[in-house]
Specification:
Length: about 280
């Protein structure tokens, strides 16, 4: 495979009240694409802070010719006509050559609880810190996961760099220290930080089998990581509360990675396997 993947990004505004019908139709459209030669994968991104009014769908094919064959096919044309009642306004299609993600990519997870009334400001902080990280070599992406009522009270920021040296360059930077000073007044309680490595070894490589979309990977990692981090921190406070900070953090990270890599992640990815592949 080349170092870039032919990709089309399709953006649509869904007719209010037609979201369920649109999702069913969009699943049919993606299933049809899977049958075409060269199909590598697709993903749907519902409206979010980056595109608050649009549903975005990405299709990836092995070659430009195979992508064009799908886009101009009679099957797609017929399905697109069926979806007209669920879409308002023009449909935007943007073609690009998407860089292949490195399997050496490393991911960090930072969780913190927002002070009452600071949720919107924390989201603005995430947009700003992402913009700053984007200027650093190797930056891949950053996602903000909002609290889940009854399950997760913290906001979680997940960000990835192409390699561990790239991540360390960001972690050691003055820009990051400045951003940490800024986030301080927005949160309460302890801020938890873990480097959990790349997701590729847990979810499969970015090839014809199709790795899960990044936000689903992040959710599954969080499901395994959060209780692991909290439990290890509790045990450390009970067993060795006076352990030096640097030694404590490094020890907890090593133990957490061992638990995740060899015990929890194989179980969790198995439990959520069908959902990850949808």
């Amino acid at each position: 495979m080349s170092d870039a993947i032919p990709t089309v990004i399709v953006s649509r505004r869904v007719t209010p009240g037609s979201e369920k019908e649109f999702e069913r139709w969009n699943n049919r459209l993606r299933s049809a694409a899977e049958k075409f030669p060269g199909h590598l994968g697709s993903e749907t991104q519902p409206p979010n802070a980056a595109h608050p009014e649009h549903w975005v769908v990405l299709y990836r094919f092995a070659t430009v010719e195979e992508l064009d064959a799908w886009l101009t096919s009679p099957e797609r044309t017929a399905l697109m006509a069926e979806g007209d009642p669920f879409v308002e306004g023009p449909v935007s299609e943007q073609r690009m050559m998407e860089p292949v993600r490195s399997e050496e990519a490393v991911t960090a997870v930072m969780s913190q609880r927002a002070r009452p009334g600071a949720d919107a400001e924390l989201r603005r902080f995430h947009r700003d810190v992402t913009a700053v990280m984007a200027d650093f070599p190797g930056f891949l992406r950053s996602d903000l996961l909002d609290p889940v009522p009854g399950a997760q009270a913290d906001h979680v920021i997940v960000f990835s760099f192409a390699s561990r040296p790239d991540l360390d360059n960001w972690l050691d930077s003055e820009e990051r220290r400045s951003m940490l000073d800024r986030i301080g007044p927005l949160i309460e309680g302890e801020r938890t930080f873990n480097v959990v490595g790349g997701f590729a070894g847990w979810f499969g490589s970015n090839d014809a089998s199709g790795a899960p979309v990044p936000w689903k990977q992040a959710v599954v990692v969080l499901i395994a990581l959060f209780p692991t981090s909290v439990s290890l921190r509790y045990l450390q406070l009970q067993i060795a509360p006076d352990l030096p900070w640097v030694l404590g953090v490094s020890t907890l990270n090593v133990v957490a990675i061992v638990i995740l890599n060899w015990f929890l992640m194989p179980l969790v990815t198995g439990w959520f396997g069908s959902w990850l592949r949808r």
